[in-house]
Design brief:
Layout lengths: L1 E4 L2 E3 L5 E7 L10 E7 L6 E6 L6 E3 L7 E6 L4 E6 L8 E8 L20 E5 L2
Parallel strand pairs: 2-10
Antiparallel strand pairs: 1-3, 3-8, 4-5, 4-9, 5-6, 7-8, 9-10
């Protein structure tokens, strides 16, 4: 199981860094590709980004490309999502999840992922 943290209220144009860590010892994130997803009220869950477990190749949805950066620190068993230039439309609950491997098409299918966290709320508002 994974656990997300780092959400909060931020003004448009601001930044947040989300973290995704294992909720229990023994779950090694480095052997999985990790994806970030978000879900706004009344909308379907949307794939945001994922990072490969093989070579840390990263993939981004067009809606966040150039503003969000996914990274992993295997020494801390943590994956991060740095979110810059936030917009009101980025408001959502953000989730991380694990998959054996990812490419851009993978994050378009949330059902491929497992070990979902409980989510962290991100609100972008003035």
């Amino acid at each position: 199981q994974l656990v997300e943290s780092g959400g909060g209220l931020v003004q448009p144009g601001g930044s947040l860094r989300l973290s995704c860590a294992a909720s229990a010892s023994g779950f090694s994130l480095h052997i999985y590709a990790i994806g970030w997803f978000r879900q706004a009220p009344g909308k379907e869950r949307e794939g945001v980004s994922c990072i490969s477990n093989i070579d840390s190749t990263t993939y981004y949805a067009d809606s966040v490309k150039g503003r969000f950066t996914i990274s992993r620190d295997n020494t801390k068993n943590t994956v991060y999502l740095q979110m810059n230039s936030l917009k009101p439309e980025d408001t959502a609950v953000y989730y991380c999840a694990a998959v054996d491997g990812c490419r851009l098409s993978t994050i378009q299918t949330p059902g491929l992922f497992g070990s979902w966290g409980q989510g962290t709320q991100v609100t972008v508002s003035s």
